[in-house]
Amino acid sequence: MPDSAPLLRLSEVSVRFGGVSALADVDFCIEKGAVTALIGPNGAGKTTLLGVITGMVAAQHGRVELDGADITALAPHVRARQGVVRTFQNLEVFANMTVLENVMTGRHALVRYGVADSILRTPRFRAGERACREAALEKLEFVGLADKKDILAGELPYGSQRLLEMARAVAAEPRLLLLDEPAAGLNTQETKSLAALIARVRDELGITVGLVEHDMDLVMGISDAVTVLNFGTVLASGDPAQIQANPDVVAAYLGG
Amino acid sequence: MRPWHARNLSRAGLFAVALFMAPLFLPNEYYINILILGAINALIALGLNLLLGYAGQISLGHAAFFGLSAYATAYATTRLGLPIPAGMGLGVALSALVAWLIGMPTLRLKGHYLAMATLGFGIIVNIVMNETVDVTGGPSGFVGIPRLALFGFIFDSDRSYYYLTAGVLALAALFSLNLIDSRVGRALRAIHTSERAAQTAGVDIAGYKLFVFVLSAAFAGVAGVLYAHFLCFVAPSSFGFHFSVQLVVMVVLGGMASVWGAVAGAFFLTALPEALRGFEEVDILIYGAILVSCVMYMPMGMAGAASGLRRRLGRRRGGGAPGAPGSEEGGHAG
Fold this sequence. Notes:
The structure holds two protein chains of two kinds. By secondary structure, chain A is an alpha/beta fold. In chain A, 39% of the residues lie in helices and 23% in strands.
């Protein structure tokens, strides 16, 4: 593993909001094909770090590399096209679209036809739209929402909306999928099936996963690597067993 | 079964037929004027609906884009002596270009900067129309614009002009429907709901906002040149802030994010003052009362009310199936 380069590498990332330091000199890696969890107490900077990776939060200092290429200066939608896709802690499904349209929107950058094709309904448009629809249906089947495809997304129950966000994200065929507290608001049963789904995203779709999560059972159950943030700095990194045994971590977080 | 990709075409075709039949039901020729103005307003509302209803961006200066193109073709076809099609092309291009210049800096910012920028822009344009008397004719208006002639055919009767504007409106409706029902439309709707989620789907939000803003200004531009060559006279009072607000009301009253709603809202608000003309002094009161009750009883606009009604009728019909024979079904032909 050490000889292959990580899919994502953050070096010396610092973010300040006014006078408050949210992240200070953070180094962080996500290995290819793994589930890497980012944990830490509230306010440790996890969501900010996710923002730095996707480009939604600007870092004052530091460097973000995807597969060896510097993406620090790229806009969020460009990074998404290069394979960095995320979900949101506060669900952001497109409530006024159907479930299927949501997932089709996820494939926006993969559909290759222009405005003129849309207006004139050219064969290019028809082929593109059909392919997009089929791929989206496949992703809905993957998360188990295929039978809900024509329902308005806003009418889905909460747990299903989480699954829909997941389907929309994997529909973009990302290289790196970042999940921001995907278990928030889910019951035990739903969390269990979420864990299974995340493992399938990694194993069946071959997508590398970055996971920000509070639910320790979920994190320790499915993660290949764990990084602990505390007060904007990296406290520890390692596999789940190492993290659970680390006295600093226990003091700062697990025990607290 | 029609193929799925031709669905919008048949809808727009039906709309065109309805528009073309409308003059048959008019009591006299005067009403053709109102239909023409209604169609021109509907054209602007369609464009504004793409911007406001779908992408969720507010423009408070659409009357100015409408006016810019009207004055541009007026000036080009009289003072510059250009042929009418060239003047019209110039007018639409000017509206689109100015929208691009306004949108470039403002749409990169988060928040309601577009509303503020277009508000100021609309007021400035109106002042310029009033003050540059040498170019625009000032407050008393620009006279002597030629009536529209295309390919040797002069649209000198109101009826022929109506068929032209109706045709353009039906095409614009088809354009809108097809645009919305594509990846572009999905991107616009996504921006409306969540910009962050749209970004993570790879949507260039600043680019799409600029695109739809310029497009909606171009719709207003097309309406403007049709207006100028119909009335053969334009004056600043038609393009003021009041009309910009009225356009927004057309879209909202019709039902945001609905092509047919925008069209219905435009025709309704164009015809309403005419219908109330008999009430003389209290007409503005009744106008206000009707608007208020529309907003109270149809919060989702005309389109929302229509789909609600359709759903309710459908439920009643479905619910009454076991006992009663469905006698009412025979009467409807769709």
